[in-house]
């Protein structure tokens, strides 16, 4: 979705379901918006466009490089003041209080991977010859290289199964351990080729619906960045980020995320903390998926804080 007056979309990152995000969150003059995964400002640019000079846009991201791009894109492009902070979104409530705010009208968390996938040096892409990394925050202590080359076989298999739902987790973990006994697995391309060989032996000539390394790469990325732990901590504090009547949207991209959002919001709705506005998850249109294949697994859920609730403890 192109919005008049905004810079063109970046070629390597298109915000997913932008029209749906705007329709459900309804940014308006004077509103306060909290983009918990601001990335390169794809959604933030669109939301900020509607906030006017009296509004406020606050953005968080674990990736310092993405934040620099966001800062450059937002400057002069949105009428509202904005503040961008390099931190994880599990600190959102703490950040809100540090800024002296009592809540936001709009909260957005897009859990998808951004431009990191397209930067070979970050070690995310299957064919990358860079060192295995996969950290959003490159100051973090543990990288994908550490996980692949140092984790015990049983624990590695558990990681692949728990976070990637990889059925060949034991076989892949065993193959990784055999390979690293001869020398470290340094790049995503090496790891991808190894997993592909394991899958080929097990598939008996069948074709693959997705790249055979997809689930393992997902599992390692989730583990390295503690993505599910971060999400669970966010879900606990999210009602307190909203003013009465405020809305929040979360875009998830795999079943482990979607399940956590669905169950947490179901419980919080029963407790009267939020009202779930989307009976079923909203998915991208066929046209959007054709234009941006990475959107195909996206699901958006939206909730609101009931207007009658003045405080959330």
Q: Helical residue percent?
A: 40-55%
Total of helices: 12
Q: What is the SS-derived class? A: alpha/beta
CATH topology label of the largest domain: Rossmann fold
| Main sheet: strands, sense, barrel | 7 strands, mixed
Overall 3D shape? globular
What would the average pLDDT be, to the nearest integer?
Answer: 92
CATH class of the largest domain: Alpha Beta
User: Strand order across the biggest sheet?
Assistant: 3-2-1-4-5-7-6
CATH homology group of the largest domain: Vaccinia Virus protein VP39
Q: How many separate domains?
A: 2
Roughly how many Å is the radius of gyration?
Answer: 20 Å
What sequence of helices (H) and strands (E) makes up the elements?
HEHEHEHEHHHHHHEHEHE
Strand fraction: 5-15%
How many angstroms separate the termini?
A: 38 Å
Count all strands and give the number: 7
Low confidence ranges: none
How are the SSEs ordered, and which strands pair?
Elements: H1 18-25, E1 32-35, H2 42-48, E2 56-61, H3 64-74, E3 82-86, H4 92-98, E4 104-110, H5 144-150, H6 153-164, H7 169-182, H8 188-203, H9 214-225, H10 227-241, E5 242-252, H11 255-270, E6 275-276, H12 286-291, E7 299-304
Parallel strand pairs: 1-2, 1-4, 2-3, 4-5
Antiparallel strand pairs: 5-7, 6-7
Helix pairs in contact: 6-7, 6-9, 7-8, 10-11
Structure explained in plain terms:
It is a single chain. By secondary structure, the protein is of the alpha/beta class. The protein folds into two domains: 176 residues, Rossmann fold (3-Layer(aba) Sandwich); 108 residues, DNA polymerase, domain 1 (Orthogonal Bundle), CATH 1.10.150.170. It is 42% helix and 13% strand. It contains twelve helices and seven strands. 42% of the residues are buried. The mean pLDDT is 92.
